Amino acid sequence: MYPIIRVLKEFYKNRNAPELATDGTHVSWHRCWPQDIDMFLEMNNGRIPTIMELGRFGLAQRVGLIKALKEQGWGLTVAGTSIRYRKRIKPFVRFEMHSKAVCWDARFIYIAQSIWTGDECAAHALFRTGVVSEGKLVPTEDVFIATDRDPTSPPTPDWVQNWIDAEATRPWPPQQT
User: Fold this and answer.
1) pLDDT digits over 81-112, tens only?
2) Is 57 left (phi over 0), alpha (psi -120 to 50) or beta?
3) pTM of the model
4) Hey, which bits of the chain come out as E strands?
5) For residue 123, which of 149, 99, 106 has the smallest C-alpha distance?
6) Number of CB atoms found within 10 A of residue 65's CB
7) Alpha carbon of 177 to those of 65, 139, 174: distances in Å?
8) Longest CA pairwise span in the chain (Å)
């Protein structure tokens, strides 16, 4: 089930949070609840991307994107993801999540997110995200103008560019197996 109560809680918690720079890091804290675990008594690997969405919503709220989405009638989409899982998250463990827009191009905003339990990184992800209107991507320049932000991207980190390049070699649509 989608964690709508958690989403509403995040919006409420961040309603008065200080504004972030476009490339600022949003830090949020969460807990692994029984509905998040799988048969191995750890957070389900499919639940982690859903929980990471909470961090992306907090980030979007703090950089003014949620306001622009409402004003423009836009929506958000995820167009690709790469996740590394490195540490199990057990029930009731409190964890810290970091969410940051690392760079963008004409179509997509690339967001890196990590989950930490103490000093250990449990999971790290890169999301290719976009803003949509009527089923089409809104150019990122228009998104940044709508949020009164500079549309100039920071330099794309090598590891992000390598992922973008690798994704460009992937056939679409895929062949059926």
Assistant:
1) 999 999 999 999 999 999 999 999 999 999 99
2) alpha
3) 0.94
4) 25-31, 75-85, 94-104, 109-117, 120-133, 136-137
5) 99
6) 24
7) 39, 34, 9
8) 50
Higher pLDDT, 3 or 69: 69
pLDDT in tens, 157-172: 999 999 999 999 999 9
81 and 128 in contact (C-beta within 8 Å)? yes
pLDDT at 2: 85
Residue whose entry in the numeric block shows the structure tokens 């423009």: 72
Whether the link from the prior residue into 173 is cis, omega within 30° of 0, is yes
Find out if CATH 3.10.129.10 is the number for domain 4-168.
yes
Domain coordinates in residue numbering, the chain: 4-168
Nearest to 16 by CA among 65, 68, 62: 62
| Residues facing 58 on adjacent strands | none
Secondary structure letter of residue 78 according to DSSP? E
Dihedral sign for Cα 11, 12, 15, 17, please: negative
Q: At what angle do helices 47-62 and 65-72 cross, to 10 degrees?
A: 90
Nearest to 72 by CA among 136, 119, 1: 136
Q: How far apart are CA 52 and CA 114, in angstroms?
A: 8
